[in-house]
UniProtKB/TrEMBL annotation:
The chain crosses the membrane at residues 28-43, 63-85, 105-128, 134-156, 165-184, 204-224, 245-274, 300-323, 343-361, 373-392, 404-420, 440-460. GO terms for cellular component: plasma membrane. Belongs to the NRAMP family. It is found in: Cell membrane; Membrane. It comes from Aequorivita antarctica. GO terms for biological process: iron ion transmembrane transport. The keyword Membrane applies. This is Divalent metal cation transporter MntH. The lineage of its organism: Bacteria, Pseudomonadati, Bacteroidota, Flavobacteriia, Flavobacteriales. Pfam families: Nramp, Usp. InterPro entries: NRAMP_fam (IPR001046), Rossmann-like_a/b/a_fold (IPR014729), Sigma_54_int_dom_ATP-bd_1 (IPR025662), UspA (IPR006016). Keywords: Cell membrane, Ion transport, Membrane, Symport, Transmembrane, Transmembrane helix, Transport. H(+)-stimulated, divalent metal cation uptake system. One of its GO terms (molecular function) is metal ion binding. Its main location: membrane.
Amino acid sequence: MDRRSHKSLEEVHGTIETQGKKSPWKKLLAFLGPAYLVSVGYMDPGNWATDIAGGSQFGYQLIWVLLMSNIMALLLQSLCARLGVVRGRDLAQASREAYNPFINFILYILAEIAIVACDLAEVIGMAIGLNLLFGLPMIWGVTITALDTFLLLFLLNKGMRKMEVFIIGLIFIIGGSFVVEMFFAKPDMGDLMAGFIPSLPNSAALYIAIGIIGATVMPHNLYLHSSLVQSRKIERTKKGIKQALKFNFIDSAIALNLAFFVNAAILILAAAVFHKNGMFEVAEIQDAHALLEPLLGSSLAPTFFAVALIAAGQSSTLTGTLAGQIVMEGHLNLRIQPWVRRLITRMLAIIPAIFTVIYFGESGTGKLLVLSQVVLSLQLGFAIIPLIHFVSNKKLMGDFNIKWPLRVASWLVTLIIVALNAKLVYDEILGWLTTSENPIYIWVFVVPVAIGAAILLLYITFKSTAKDIATENRKMVPHILDAKVDELAQPLSYKKIAVPVDFSTSDEKSISAALQLGGKDAEYTLIHIVETPGAMIYGDEIDDYETESDEAFLNIYKEKLQEKGYKVSVELGFGSAKKIIPKIVNASDFDLLVLGGHGHTGIKDLLFGTTVDSVRHRVNIPVFIV
């Protein structure tokens, strides 16, 4: 029985047919789409601030940074597509299989925080756009973005293709708006081309460059892309996979170059309008909008600017919410109603935005945008490093693992991104310590988190995931041998015996002990508790892969024992083993409870406590501890 996670984005998984297309162009068109949904994350409102700041302060001189970050993004997104196509796993699912549950849970929390931070930037950006275009108060703009959740649900119900067409339409609105802006701005082409020559005028330019790179490569895009490529139904042969990888790379190249055009257009607009007129300190989106009309002499310029901002915010919020679903399902194997899941993801972003607008005013949204980018920077390494480990491993990827030239390039890009983002985080914390009235709170709450994150980053960098993944089923397989159920010692007087099992190697000892105590005259009940997050919330109403798989394992145990002549029944419980096992035992007339070890020790026992100690104090029958 395979205990792997369910399919990524199951409602659209493998729904787009790519086979049977005779024309190469038709086959290519069948694959085009996923990267466009990813590319909107590279032109979201969080990018606008850094592009506007870079253009207004340094003119065209930092366009090369945009180009470099775009090349980095193309490399990383191609690795995500490779993971999804070859292994049929998104990044969250692969992490769940590779790391122990404790590390996996931390990675989930970090990914969720990053997605909320990214979603926060999109919510604020769209609210600013609505405010600029219609004069709608920020508080109402933020609240309206909750409706995106239902728009996303509607689009997905119509099919993945409809979703992709909608997003591509928004991208062309953004691109078209900036084509018009370029017509008004009339940039100097000579200076513009000179901007592709690498240069950093001063330390402030370095800081802006770091911000551009940090805002360009986003963690949620890595999770998103590895999942979306699986919406294509491909031939699972070497030729079919190789073809899928080629077409997905073309898809990524086209989509990310469009994103590069949009980002470059924003920077060029700021350079041609603000830097040229000596306005070097324009960094806020609202300020840029207000200055466009008087400087360009056209009322249409700020209108197109606001329309583009709304389109960018809308498209980014939809894909960010999708990424939230992928992370939750992948890391936790938790499947809840789609509209509930998406509403939760959106609320986690809207609540801090509303709080900021109410208590700090509209001016506080700019600081919140900066904070969201810092949070994204802190998370980035935790997504990139596992990704490189996964696609480098030949045991997992077969002939499609990345070879050493690409591997070296990937690690070099990772080193640059993580180092630059680490500097950004360090500078922000240093700034908080310098300007805060109560720096003790920074030392107590922020600094330890940053140090802990650095330690975890080192752990996942140097810990090989190959051994863990290759033996991913070692803890959760039936470990009962025929020798264990042969005729054993003379039985004692126990007639009804309960035996909790967890599908680890300890089951052999506990079942063997129970058989010695009861023999073939006794009745045995094998109890297993499903302890997934879904089981904790929904109890016996949960209907997911984990529950089905556990029930199948329990029946395997039952059949093996019955073949040897033992009378066996099974009982499946849901929730915390410490609470549910005593509840099941006390509700029946068992003579004895046989408790074996469980699947965790050490740190987990410190965090969760031992099941044995809790259970033995809560049951009213004798307990035999193996």
